[in-house]
Structure formats: structure tokens, C-alpha cells
Amino acid sequence: MTVYFIGAGPGAADLITVRGARTLASCGVCLYAGSLVPAELLADCPPDARLVDTANLDLDAITAEFVRAHQEGHDVARLHSGDPSVFSAVAEQMRRLDAAGIPYEVVPGVPAFAAAAAALKRELTVPTVGQTVVLTRVAQQATPMPEGEDLATLGRSGALLVLHLAARYVDRVVAELLPHYGPDCPAAVVAMASRPDELILRGTLEEIAGLTKEAGVTKTAVILVGRTLAASQFRDSHLYDPARARHVC
């Protein structure tokens, strides 16, 4: 058997990849976070599949489900919201599977920051304005940030910042970034990206905390800060430049 870590996408059920949907439909066991993964996706599971909501399970209990499925010879679809590569707590599960000798594979999904950019109708990298995107979060009591990855340090780059799991700390985000980005820097918050209740807030860095609190946004949101969010005067890319030499084979 194999455990498949499947990126379920940012929220809309039809944003799972074709590979993800096909893999889900082939697994006899599905572990999913009921609070984050759209229920519609479970309809793609085999009719006789065992469905396990992991919202209230700890790592030991989740590992026990993997071991049970392994012993019974069932492939497992482990559905994670967004993409498993960032802020998904997949690494610790993989470590447990390695220790147990259980094989696994990863099926990528649409990450929340990509869904947020789509909602904003913005390309996050714009020629001559910004070519770097930093995905990060803020320090919390339970999970501190490694040395050198605080917002004050990251903000010195001036790169487009995308902050996950930070909406309830928006005041702190603004206070730490203002010295580096300035009060007029474009900022946005996208909550529930791609879902029917999607909410988009746009403003300046100076305004975004007030807008976020006024809207009552505290979770399931990303904060974006950077000049590319409002860039309009920039050079066309070299890719489609009429002066670029193009060779016909």
C-alpha cells in the first residue's frame, strides 16, 4: 500500500488537480481535515472507502490510521488543504512513515497564495518592479520563527511578502513592515480564496489592519504586501518583446 499526500487546493472543490482526483478515487482509505477540505471532494472516494476526519486527531492517532491501513493493504489518500509543500504539517507525518517503513508519495495542489493572486487578478512578479516572492508567517507562542526569518529581517528585501496564518496578528505585521515598505505600499488580504464566501480586502499597508479587523477576518486568509500588487508602469517582459530574436526551425 501507499500513502498519498494530496493537495486538495485552496477551497473550491474543482481546484484539485486531475491527478489528485484520480488518486483519491482509487484509495480505500481517506484521511482528511474536515475543517479545511471541502466535503464535496469526498464524493470522489470509492463508495466503500473508510473516511477519517482528522480535525480532532493528534499525530499519534493519525499515524495509527496509516499503520492500520498498511496492515490491511489499503492505499491511503491523505487530503491536505492547499499544497503539501508549505505550512501543511506533512513533514512530521512523513517522518513517522519513514520510521514505520510505509511508502508514500506526494501529489501537489493549488496553494493558497496562488488562489489569492488569482482572486486579486495580479501577477506577483512584475518586470523591473519585483521578481521575488517570500512565503512566510509570523512567530507564535506555540511555533517560533527560526533566527533571521522575522518580518523585520525579511522586510529589508522589499520583496512581495505573502503571510499565511497571520490574519489575527495583522497589527504586528503592519508595525514590523512599515519601516521597510512605507505606509503607502499596496497590501491586500484574501480570505477563503476560491470559495463562495471569498473576501478580498485591498488598501495600503497603513490601512490594511483596520480593514481586516473591520471585516472580522482572523483565519483562513493570506496577507500580501508589496509594490507588484498595484504596479501599472513597468517594462514589458523580454519573453514577448517584438525585438527578441526568434528562430524558425
TrEMBL record:
GO terms for molecular function: precorrin-4 C11-methyltransferase activity. SUPFAM superfamilies: Tetrapyrrole methylase (SSF53790). GO terms for biological process: cobalamin biosynthetic process; methylation. Pathway: Cofactor biosynthesis; adenosylcobalamin biosynthesis. Residues 2-209 form the Tetrapyrrole methylase domain. InterPro entries: 4pyrrol_Mease (IPR000878), 4pyrrol_Methylase_sf (IPR035996), 4pyrrole_Mease_sub1 (IPR014777), 4pyrrole_Mease_sub2 (IPR014776), Cbl_synth_CobM/CibF (IPR006362), Siro_Cobalamin_biosynth (IPR050161), Uropor_MeTrfase_CS (IPR003043). Pfam families: TP_methylase. Keywords: Cobalamin biosynthesis, Methyltransferase, S-adenosyl-L-methionine, Transferase. It comes from the Bacteria. Belongs to the precorrin methyltransferase family. This is Precorrin-4/cobalt-precorrin-4 C11-methyltransferase. It comes from Streptomyces wuyuanensis.
